[in-house]
Design goal:
CATH class of one domain: Alpha Beta
Distance between the termini: 68 Å
Strand content: 15-25%
Helix content: 55-70%
Shape: flat
Order of helices and strands: HHEEHEEEHHEEHEEEHHHEHEEHEEHHEE
Radius of gyration: 54 Å
């Protein structure tokens, strides 16, 4: 849109005329093209449908003839076997399609064995009478895909049986029953296989002959009802599953499917292959569409010629229409530019009474008003600008001061509230214990062991109070940026770790503390007492939040730094709280932590001491799985 806005009026008029003529030309071309395309496609489709139907009829008729001739030959050959009276092939309408005696072909068979085999679909045998002679008859159903297509009957002569002694007839009857079933099954299998093989050979020969003799057919493909190619002009594709949109459409019930392949210049038509009312597969024929695309190309070239002539005529016509409008506007534009540069004495020449003349008159009135307004504005601007600048500076200074004061008040109020809440809670618990046990010591007659026990409680709570006070003093010095009085010297961190672990190892209760330290760790420059304070804080936290598992303390070297880590199996820290554990007075708010004391100052002090030593802190935790926190100091 931006280039179109920047175009001049002449260019816009020319563009509009050209676009209009091009649109008309393209619309005419498209209408002609689609009409011709539809006509050509309809003609090709009609021819394709006729040829497809002729191919389907040829496949069906030739297959039926080939089956009957080959089947009769097989029946007559088997009839020459010694002991066989005759062989009959009967369809499911009780009509004989092949027989040892050719004059019986086409007659309707009447036998209780045949009726029973067709009705129930299983093998039947027994004594019967054929053409006035007693025989042993075996009837076997011919099936394909679970459907009964007919039956096969084999009759054996009974000369040996009739001349045998009565005690041998039972054995001979059993032997005939067994032999008749073997013969019937073998013969039915041969007939079914012969039908399939002959059908495929016939179809492939028909496809080869059609593609070789036709100049317009580029591809022929016959697909069965399982989408497998059974005949094709490309023998390498026979037996392959046809992954084709048209084949899938016909198998799903479509009566015809057509499409064009521009890259191959071919037109493909797919139609169902049916024998009677039974769906057998798909017939796909591809036709050479070179003439179709040649004709469309000629139409396209003609359309381009018409469009080019329309563009040329549009440009010439646009110049004739645009010049009477553009020239006055260009003159007015020149006056406008000079007026914009500051020459308010400029006026436009009015040469007509049309819309352009009215525009020029309005422009002149506007120029006079601008000249008058400019004088008034100049007088006010001399004093107004200075007043605005001065007032703006005063407001900015006042706003900055107010924002700074407001932020300080908010932070101070939050810090005061947080400190009072935590301090009152942490001081109240040990003070209550000290007051309670000291009152008992003063008012009750106690044994020496009781006094010793109570004094022990008072001592523990006093130590706890002293630690809280120390933490508050440390955080106060940190906030006021006072020096902690660090005294750095070469220190072995493993020794500092062991000294502090001894304090906890003497406790009678609590989790077990396990150490895992590398040998010959390098020295670091540090204040041993302050690093000991860091280790104690980390172990205290691990003990407080432990669920009873072991606490593992490690000392190792990583990335040119000596590291101390403390790992517990406690309640862990969620990912949303993990980034805030080093904030002052922050404690995780969960049911498991309600009964655990703490000011929330331990880890902020740890962070300050480690960072003062140019060290790093690393923490990993998963809720319910424990926490691992460590620090590293640069090696000497």
């Amino acid at each position: 849109m931006s280039p179109l806005k920047n175009m001049g009026i002449r260019a816009k008029i020319i563009a509009a005329m050209v676009v209009l003529l091009v649109f008309i030309g393209l619309l005419s071309f498209w209408t002609t093209h689609m009409h011709e395309k539809k006509s050509l496609l309809t003609n090709m489709q009609d021819n394709a449908v006729i040829l497809n139907r002729a191919l389907i009829i040829s496949i069906t008729n030739q297959k039926s003839i080939g089956e009957k001739v080959n089947l009769q030959t097989l029946v007559e050959d088997l009839s020459l076997t010694e002991g066989i009276f005759g062989v009959w092939v009967i369809d499911n309408n009780f009509r004989i399609t092949s027989a040892t005696f050719r004059d019986q072909v086409g007659e309707v068979a009447s036998s209780r064995f045949i009726s029973e085999a067709l009705e129930k679909g299983y093998y039947v045998c027994g004594f019967d009478t054929k053409m006035g002679e007693e025989v042993y008859s075996a009837v076997y159903p011919l099936k394909k895909g679970g459907k009964i297509l007919g039956v096969l009957e084999v009759a054996f002569e009974l000369r040996e049986y009739q001349h045998a002694h009565s005690r041998d007839r039972i054995q001979l009857a059993a032997q005939m029953k067994r032999d008749s079933r073997i013969m019937a099954e073998s013969l039915s299998y041969s007939i079914e296989n012969m039908r399939d093989v002959n059908e495929l050979i016939h179809i492939q020969r028909l496809v080869d002959r059609l593609t070789a003799e036709s100049e317009i057919i580029s591809q022929v493909m016959i697909v069965d009802d399982d989408s497998r190619i059974i005949a094709c002009d490309d023998l390498n594709r026979v037996g392959v599953i046809a992954d084709d949109k048209g084949v899938r459409a016909i198998i799903n019930g479509a009566s015809i499917y057509t499409r064009l392949f521009p890259s191959k210049k071919a037109y493909m038509v797919d139609m169902p292959l049916r024998i009677g009312d039974e769906f057998k597969g798909v017939v796909s024929i591809g036709y050479d569409a070179t003439d179709y695309y040649t004709h469309l190309s000629q139409i396209f070239d003609f359309g381009l010629l018409i469009t080019g002539m329309g563009i040329l005529m549009g440009i010439l016509l646009s110049f004739q229409v645009a010049n009477p409008i553009i020239m006055p506007i260009q003159r007015l534009t020149g006056v406008t530019k000079r007026l914009a540069e500051g020459d308010l004495s400029q006026r436009a020449a009015v040469s007509s009474k049309d819309e352009v003349g009215a525009l020029a008159s309005a422009f002149n009135r506007m120029a006079e008003d601008l000249a008058h307004s400019k004088d008034e504005i100049d007088q006010y601007s001399k004093t107004l600008e200075e007043k605005v600048r001065q007032r703006t500076r005063e407001l900015e200074i006042s706003n900055q001061e107010l924002r700074a004061i407001q932020n300080e008040l908010v932070e101070a109020n939050m810090a005061k509230s947080e400190f009072l809440s935590i301090a009152s809670h942490e001081f109240r618990t040990p003070l209550t214990t000290v007051l309670g046990y000291s009152e008992l010591l003063l008012t009750r007659a106690l044994t020496e062991s009781q006094k010793k026990e109570f004094l022990g409680f008072i001592n523990e709570e006093s130590i706890r109070l002293s630690k809280i006070v120390d933490d508050l003093l440390d955080i106060s010095r940190i906030e006021s940026q006072k020096d902690f009085g660090f005294v750095k010297k070469p220190v072995q961190l493993a020794e500092v770790l062991l000294e502090n672990i001894k304090f906890y190892s003497r406790a009678e209760i609590g989790p077990r503390i396990i150490t895992d330290m590398e040998q010959d760790l390098p020295l670091v420059s540090a204040d041993g007492d302050k690093i000991g304070q860091v280790i104690k804080n980390l172990i205290d936290n691990a003990i407080k939040y432990s669920l009873g598992g072991d606490i593992v303390c490690k000392a190792f070297v990583r990335d040119n730094m000596v590291w101390i880590s403390v790992q517990d199996q406690g309640i862990g820290i969620s990912q949303q709280d993990l980034s805030r554990v080093f904030d002052k007075f922050f404690r995780v708010k969960r049911k498991e932590t309600d009964q655990i004391s703490g000011t929330g100052l331990g880890l902020p002090i740890v962070k300050y001491i480690v960072e003062f030593h140019d060290g790093e802190i690393d923490i990993e935790s998963k809720q319910g799985k424990g926490t691992t926190i460590g620090f590293g100091l640069p090696r000497l």
